[in-house]
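Subject: two folds for Thursday's group meeting

Dear M.,

Sorry for the delay on this. The cluster queue was jammed most of the week, so I only got both jobs back this morning. I'm pasting them in the order they finished. Each block is the input sequence followed by the predicted structure tokens. Could you check whether the formatting survives your parser before we put anything on slides? The first protein is the one we discussed after the seminar.
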Amino acid sequence: MNYFITAIGTDSGKSLFSAVICEALEADYWKPIQAGYPRDTDYVGGLLSNLKSDLIPEKYVLNTPASPHYAAEIDNVKLEVVDFDIPKTDNHLIIEGAGGVLVPINDKEFVIDFPKQWNIPVILVANLYLGSINHTLLTINELKRRGVEVKGIVFNGPSNPSSEDIILKHSGYNCLLRIADEKEINHAVVRKYAAELKRNL
């Protein structure tokens, strides 16, 4: 099974959850576009305990920590969704997007066009803050409008049951995992959430 990990925005917790699901499935990991450093591939790899997951090199590593369309422009690189093929692997594959679903790849295409092109389900990571209900439901509406399959939602960070309940009610999606605001993220924490996630996938 392949999953595309996206979020309601930047720094919502995509890379952390990518590590959790890679650990749960002993899956391979691929970040098609890395804009800026440090590399998310290094972060995810540093949190894995299993020996089966393979870290597949990015197709593009851009130098500027910015939207891919702008980072590519600075590096004089042309990004087009059609040029990206899913790496061949006999294993499960977790693909991590950049930022949120409407982060532009070029002046016409967005991150959301990757799972749409590949016909693979999305897992949406949402962190909870003032305004996050609006951001999450707008993201969900866009995924539905474009006919992208969604496996479920992951809530990351400090819990807000009221916000979570209304998001789940209006989305119709299942909550796959709740990741608390951990003091430290390490191998043991990732293994703990991986074990919980396996029961919900």
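Second protein, same layout:
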Amino acid sequence: MRKMTHKEPTPPPQVPFKRGKVKDVYDIGNDQLLFVFTDRVSAYDVVLPSTIPKKGEALCKMAAFWFDYLKTPHHMVRLKDPQRMIVRKLKMIPVECVVRGYLYGSLYERFTKHEIFLPSVEPVLAAKLPEPIFDPTTKSEKKDEPITVEQIEDEGWLDAEQIAALKERTVSIYKTILDRADSAGFILADLKLEFGFDEEENIILADSVGPDEFRLWPKESYAPGKVQESYDKQPIRDWLSKVGYKKNLDQARKQGMPVPRPPDIPEDLISETSRRYIIAYERLTGLKL
């Protein structure tokens, strides 16, 4: 299949001081940053060569929706346009705060390899966990790795009281979005959040909240024991596994070799992924994109 070419929005004139996997960040002064939500897509911590139309707009507007909806301190100042958001500059906490409500993804892999112990949990793919678990990871441009609460404290990133507050805030936000997703006909399988400190050392919700930060499954097709239909970038992950790229990537990383070039995404998969981002936004927010 031929590769589709999609144009990115015209960037600000200055060079971004941080180019993330899917988001560019510009320092605009006055302790503020400009986030540009691009149509780039990443999987397995690798930026893919294809882009997804409307993805950046869906993520930017959904992040704004959640910042307003969650009623928790956040860093958003305002939307500048459909793909750009102005936020307060924070001292970011170097931890990805992950909550998992279902046995899926890397949690399933680690559990079945006996790398993690989960009491009263059977090794059934996509099974609902008795309670959501806090499962933090490191933040890395290469590959995020699981980290324990004890390791976070030992590294000096947070003290015990801050970790407890972060865990409580993360699980609370997960449950709030879980309820909203349920009313929209979805299951929120997991959620990844980022936080930072403001000038008074208050913990502030930061970065973004959307399908690049959670797995979203339609309730009508959910069944434990199988790969789930997903309204996020999971279809792209599944395709990369099917064509053998994930296996090659894992081998290269294990051997300390350069990351192999990812394949171009087929046109039909690009269109379907774009459609799912739009549907997720519209059903979760009740707004049209």
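Two things I noticed about the second structure. The longest strand covers residues 186-197. The radius of gyration is 19 Å.

Cheers,
T.
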